[in-house]
Amino acid sequence: MKIAAGVGENQAIIKAAQKVDFEVILTKSEEQLLNLLLNGDVNAAVRGSLSASCFMSQLRKIYSEVSRASILEYNGQLFLLAPVGIDEGDTLQQKERIIHNGAEFLEKIGIDPKIAILSGGRPQDVGRSSKIDNSIMEARELTMITKDKYRVKHYFILIEDAVSDGANLILAPDGICGNLIFRSLVLIGSIKSHGAVTLGIEEIFIDTSRSQNEEGYIRSLELAKKLAESI
Fold first, then answer.
1. What residues form DSSP beta bridges with 66?
2. Helices (DSSP H) in 39-89: which residue ranges?
3. What secondary structure does DSSP assign to 19-44, as a single string?
4. Less packed terminus of the chain by CB within 10 Å, N or C?
5. How far is Cα 28 from Cα 193, in angstroms, rounded to an integer?
6. Residues 5/25, Cβ–Cβ less than 8 Å
7. What is the dihedral of CA 99, 43, 72, 77, to 10 degrees?
8. E strand or H helix that includes residue 80
9. C-alpha dihedral over 222, 160, 136, 147, to 10 degrees?
10. CA atoms within a 13 Å half-sphere pointing along the CA-CB vector of 193
11. Quick one: which H or E segment has residue 137?
12. Other C-beta atoms within 10 Å of 47: how many?
């Protein structure tokens, strides 16, 4: 078992690699990390603290429809949060694809998808602004076109209800919102992150924040190994 990991300014990934019981190949180049993954030289890769924009731009030259879903843990409950890339989930079609790919991933690891769609307000907030109205209307439409395929519910802005109800795929209104939710829950709050699985590719690539700590990187490396062994 070989896992590749990227080393940028945050050196915590190096310490994390030294504390796992499998081989981790460290690289300081986004291009080298991608080549190791695509050439099959490693079983999986973890971005570590390398640049997301640089790596993802290269990956999208090969896979055009790529998105990321963070695997978060709250009180022992695991759920996916997507999209978390700031340039992802901007259109209805992109969100529908994220739901499909996220549900497919959950099924591969033996979890029955339960999907929560979020939007920019409560039902009674319609009319307060065009931005809120558009967010709610799009979420309603997305719920309508996916409800025949999956267990899906529109929770409006009430992410706390989605988590309480046991949703295991939470769809943010867009990638900026998803990234802010991630940073609030993980980098400020106490929710554990296991890294973000990359959807829409054949290989196993775990995305991570450049601001993650050593324990977070250990969890991401261990997730990469677990997925490489199971799917």
1. none
2. 52-59
3. TSSSEEEEES-HHHHHHHHHTTSSSE
4. C
5. 23
6. yes
7. 90
8. strand 77-82
9. 60
10. 28
11. helix 130-146
12. 29
Asked whether the predicted pLDDT for residue 104 surpasses 90, the reply is: yes
Which pTM does this prediction carry? 0.91
CA 26, distance to chain mean position in Å, is 22
Secondary structure of residue 138 in the 3-state scheme: helix
C-alpha 189: how far from its chain's center? 17
Query: In Å, how far are 5, 62, 110, 144, 202 from 44, measured between CA atoms?
Result: 9, 17, 20, 36, 11
User: For residue range 21-33, what is the model confidence (pLDDT) as tens digits?
Assistant: 999 999 999 999 9
Q: 64 pLDDT exceeds 90? A: no
Contacts of 15 by beta carbon, 8 Å cutoff, 6+ apart? 214, 217
DSSP state of 124: G
Tell me 73's DSSP state.
E
Using alpha carbons, select from 219, 207, 196, 197 the residue that is nearest to residue 30. 207
Distance between CA atoms of 61 and 218, rounded to whole angstroms?
29
User: Please, how many CA atoms are within 13 Å of residue 39, restricted to the half-sphere of its CB?
Assistant: 9
**Distance (Å, rounded) from C-alpha 202 to C-alpha 170?**
23
The type of residue at 102 is G
The rounded distance, in Å, linking the Cα atoms of 5 and 24 is: 7
Residue 190 — very low, low, confident or very high, per pLDDT cuts 50/70/90? confident
176 conformational bin, left if phi > 0, alpha if psi -120 to 50, beta if neither: alpha
Amino acid at 49: S
